[in-house]
Design goal:
- The protein has eight helices and ten strands.
- With about 280 residues, the chain is of the alpha+beta class.
- Strand 4, helix 4 and strand 5 form a beta-alpha-beta unit.
- Helix 7 packs across helix 8.
- It is globular.
- It starts with 16 loop residues before the first helix and ends in an 8-residue tail after the last strand.
Length: about 280
């Protein structure tokens, strides 16, 4: 399962002033809190069906939410004034090869009608606050390299970097309509929650400097898939090859550009000095 299919809310397009005012009112009425009750977790189950269209086979079950909470993981939900869940995120406790703890954010979902109210970002920030409070330096998750909207959120808005590209990570056995037609290639963003880079990104500042390589992706891969699946497969093949080559040459993704005029987007690769791990 991946976070990206939720298409978390970001400032991706201009809105009219009236729309902005309405969004602000919605934000103020939304509460972000940790999920702790059976009712909370029951709403997480229902949302998986609504957002991803999963069958029962693919849904993360009720028991897993309970066990995760008792094992060091956590779930945060976004709730309206009536207690209805509008979005949630699930993070699992994890250990890397060096036996260092980190959090793996397995899911983040937002109801379709609330994806321009900032819920996705607020759920991620709640995860960051939880990690800082528990002394865990790193959160990671997965997303589709071809999803420009999510790349912008993860890299530009949150300050993630990317060092790993996994080919067909989930295979092709998912019941979600969002997984159909292409291999499930995934990127693993690294979110070093206490790093200077993340602080700057959250403050609206971006990494400067000339990138050593760029990789283009379409602005909207879903439109490409709907129009011509073979074209979408060609995009995936080119992006896969370019990412694999750049990472093997010691580069990593630390920037992303979305064309304001609607053209293709670009991942920006830099020489990897591992500065994020040093804070």
């Amino acid at each position: 399962m991946t976070e990206v299919e939720c298409v978390a809310s970001i400032a991706w397009r201009k809105t009219e002033r009236g729309q902005k005012g309405e969004m602000e009112e919605q934000r103020e009425a939304i509460e972000i809190r940790e999920c702790v009750t059976f009712e909370d977790f029951g709403q997480c189950i229902a949302m998986q069906r609504e957002v991803w269209g999963f069958s029962d086979l693919d849904i993360t079950p009720f028991r897993s939410f309970i066990v995760t909470r008792k094992s060091g993981g956590f779930t945060y939900g976004a709730f309206d004034g009536d207690g209805r869940m509008l979005g949630f995120s699930l993070a699992l406790p994890a250990i890397d090869d060096g036996l260092r703890p980190y959090y793996y954010s397995q899911m983040l979902a937002v109801l379709p009608g609330y994806r321009d109210t900032g819920i996705g970002v607020r759920l991620k920030l709640a995860q960051r606050e939880h990690a800082l409070r528990t002394g865990v330096e790193l959160i990671t998750w997965t997303f589709d390299p071809l999803q420009s909207r999510n790349a912008y959120l993860n890299i530009v808005k949150l300050g993630c970097v990317i060092r790993h590209y996994l080919v067909n990570y989930y295979g092709q056995v998912s019941s979600s309509v969002l997984h159909r037609g292409l291999d499930t290639d995934r990127l693993f963003p690294e979110w070093w929650v206490g790093s200077e880079r993340v602080g700057e990104a959250l403050g609206g500042r971006r990494k400067s400097g000339r990138p050593e390589a760029e990789v283009e992706i379409p602005r909207n891969i879903d439109e490409v898939k709907a129009r011509d699946l073979d074209e979408a497969r060609d995009w995936q093949s080119r992006v896969r090859e370019a990412f694999t080559r750049n990472i093997s040459e010691g580069l990593y993704v630390a920037g992303f550009e979305a064309d304001p005029d609607g053209g293709n987007s670009r991942y920006l690769f830099y020489r990897d000095e591992h500065e994020e791990e040093r804070g």
